Amino acid sequence: MRKSKAKRKQPTPQKTIIRREYAAAQGGRLTSDWMAAGTSQDSELYSSLTTLRNRSRQMIRDNPHAANLRRIIQDNVVGTGIGIQCQILNNDGVSDDRLNNQIEEAWKEWSEKETCHTAGQLCLSDLLRLVIGAVFQDGEAFIRKVPMAFGGGKIPLALEIIEPDLIFDQGVSIYQSRNHTVRLGVEVDEWNRPVAYWMRRAHPGDMSFVGQSVTGAGLRRIPADEIEHLYLIERWPQTRGTPWMHSVLRRMRDMGGYTESELVAARASANVLGFIERQDMTPDEMQEDPRKREQTIASEPGEIRRLYGGETFTGFAPSRPNSNLDPFMRYMLREVAAGVGVSYESLSRDYSQSNYSSSRLALLDDRNLWRVLQGWLIRNYLTPIYRRWLDAAVLSGVLDIPDYFSNKKRYQAVRFKPRGWSWVDPQKEVQAYALAVANGFMSRSDVIAAIGNGQDREDVDKAIKRDREGAAALGLQFDPTIKQSSPGTKVDETNLNDTGQ
Asked: For 114-156, what is each residue's pLDDT tens digit?
């Protein structure tokens, strides 16, 4: 019987599967070490917030560029302060100047440090600068509205600054009553709306601190309506803020280490002038312990001393500091500036690498950022505090507004006046603003708000009126169309409108 030959099975052709995916999500040899976790924002902050905050503070203490970044933000967002202009209207639609002035004066008086700050050390402008600096440095700021009068004031309201270290952020737990969740020290409801803040009674950096549970005796629960929590939300849900330098802290530290290494190398290079070499040595000298021979020669600047027989001098002239130090540091500073969001020119104070046009564009980009931050600070900090202050001022009798609580929207109408900026090219920009006003593209109020450094149109108009009345009282009359004559030029006195000359 013949054996049948077994048929060999032909290999089944494999089908090529093509998957659509982003290039950044593809695997392979070049991306095998690219690990990215899918944790929530709060989970990432839980494991790194304290370290980020401490390193950010240390960098601001020791690094001049980090300290300058915080100062830049404080100066441009707050400057010398943010004023208010009440905009209460009468029933006929005309501004109620009497009540507006009364409220503005009461606000100005309360803004002094004795009545505004619970400790009596910070006026409102100082508080604003501290708050925006803390948001940059720590990622967040906490302000408690205390319903008490301080410093002899009559309005029962003052502000307390609370450092983020006092927030009990050790873990996530369930607060059994009302089934609220405590996330990084913030008690939230099912919609992630803050309900209360759990705070330590003592700063953990002031003394030895022993961790306690949420219901422990070392903590206090402060209702959320007493706290203004300022931070920029980058992902949702996000319960706490992130320091603004989180993406550049390592680069700034590397820059500091590299700069220190260059300085050490430069100092060593400057200290070593050269080397003494012996061409021939006697057998006794060769057997002598080298530690007994003099290894260094003390010298004064510009002096080379002794050469014994058989000795030659070889000079030491290293290229320190490194010639590539300046362009490398400029490159690193550009990365730091991009990570924080400011221009390289503002951060470095170096305008040697730019011309007028590029510097002007950088300044305009910066000012757009400052306006965004000013609006954010006004909406999230000043507006709720002003409304709480106005309620307290009416309740205490400092402001007499009988129908206030039945018509709060009308009486709370206010416009805040943040700082502005002067012109980059005064002549061209004044002409541009004048054309915009003349053609109806802008109003005088818009122009003054942009460049008036906290003033408004009413302030400017009143100042102009006072100046003109004062000049008229002295018999002076000025005509801005008259040009100044150059020295030695004969002037026709009949064209002078200044009657005081």
From this structure: 999 999 999 999 999 999 999 999 999 999 999 999 999 999 9
458 inside domain: yes
pLDDT computed for residue 429 by the predictor: 78
pLDDT at position 443, please? Answer: 87
Task: Say if strands 194-200 and 219-223 run parallel, antiparallel, or are unpaired.
Answer: antiparallel
- Is residue 286 helix, strand or coil? helix
Considering the domain boundaries, does residue 295 fall inside one?
no
Angle (deg, nearest 10), helices 426-438 and 444-451: 150
Per-residue pLDDT, 309: 60
Q: How far is 67 from 479, CA to CA, in rounded Å?
A: 47
Q: For residue 313, report the phi and psi dihedrals to the nearest 5 degrees.
A: -110, 130
Q: What are the tens digits of pLDDT across the range 68-84?
A: 999 999 999 999 999 99
Q: Are strands 158-162 and 172-175 parallel, antiparallel or unpaired?
A: unpaired
Please indicate, yes or no, if residue 475 is contained in any of the structural domains: yes
Look over the chain and give the mean of its residue pLDDT values, rounded to a whole number: 81
3-state secondary structure of 199: strand
Length of the chain: 501
Q: What pTM value is reported for the model? A: 0.77
Cα 326–327–328 angle (5° rounding)?
90
Q: What is the domain extent for residue 436? A: 422-481
- Domains in the chain, number: 1
User: Which residues, in sequence order, are CB contacts of 394 under 8 Å at separation 6+?
Assistant: 401, 404, 405
DSSP-derived 3-state class of residue 91: coil
- Between 108-112, 130-134, 179-183, 195-199, the lowest mean confidence (pLDDT) is in 179-183
From the list 209, 168, 161, 212, the residue with the least C-alpha distance to 187 is 168
Beta-bridged to residue 312, according to DSSP, are 277
**Interval 288-293 mean pLDDT:** 54
- pLDDT confidence tier of residue 315, bands split at 50, 70 and 90: low
Residue 269 CB contacts under 8 Å (≥ 6 apart), including other chains: 316, 318, 320
One-letter amino acid of 410: R
* 323 CB neighbour count, 10 Å cutoff: 8
C-alpha pair distances (Å), 76 with each of 130, 363, 420, 489? 13, 11, 8, 44
- Nearest residue to 456 via CA among 82, 88, 110: 82
Axis crossing angle, helix 97-110 with helix 383-395, rounded to the nearest 10: 100
| Strand duo 186-188 + 227-230: pairing | unpaired
- Residue 287 in any domain: the answer is no
Closest C-alpha to 228, from 143, 127, 124: 143
